[in-house]
Amino acid sequence: MRSDAKGAPLDVVYVLDGSFALGLASTICILQSVDLINPGYKPVLLVGVDYPEDAVNARTRDYTMKDSVSSSLGKRLAQASPITPGGADKFLEFLENELDPLIRARYNTTNGPAGIVGDSFGGTFTFYAFLRQSKLFDRYWIGSPGVFTTSTDYVAQFDARLKEKLVHPTKMYLSIGSKEMSGGVEFYEDMGRNYNRMVSALHRNKSADLTWASKIYDGDTHTSVVLPAMNDAMIYLYGNHAS
After folding, report:
1. pTM, 2 dp
2. Is residue 106 in a domain?
3. How far apart are CA 116 and CA 46, in angstroms?
């Protein structure tokens, strides 16, 4: 749909790890739009964000903050990829200053903020975008966020941010699988502990600017949780009937 296309302008939703997640998100949106029992799911413009097929997948760099990856996971990542974590600040600048203006110029979009959905390190980045209070976003899916215990306490920063005025009235959905939290994999369990800290911070800091929900998916792992959590997140963030 080009900028001169007929029809109502669309809200923009950025889908991280677009090579696989964009297809999931689009299927969810199509199915929800024809739901006769819970009607009321308006069209959105989904924008998949990923890397060219012949390029290095740099998500471990672009989706993570400096000093945000645990030592045990850092060793695993070093074996699999030469990409060093810690580039989330530059990636956010790319979304704000390069990609979003291009999307707004090319397509018929609303003038309001966008949504952003991400899982795993994608969830790390959506967490970071909220932490930075980017003016670009007002709806977030923080799925199984890779927020680990390091010398930088990002959850404490999250807690402090929640005490401040938010840049936009915001809607947020958080999710994780129960077997991530207690399945015997050390860095997943560390994620689980920090996820609980995040939810506790949200409970402590009530805000008229923030509507949120969270869910632990019983029996799900880091991979099996993606589809049901994304489905629930999209309904919560964009469904007219969602509470």
Report:
1. 0.94
2. yes
3. 10
Residue 6 located in a structural domain: no
* CB of 114 closer than 8 Å to CB of 100: yes
Q: Categorize the per-residue pLDDT at 79 as very low, low, confident or very high, splitting at 50, 70 and 90.
A: low
CATH code assigned at 159? 3.40.50.1820
Give the model's pLDDT for residue 2. Answer: 36
243 occurs within a structural domain: no
The total of structural domains in the chain comes to 1
Range of the domain at 54: 11-238
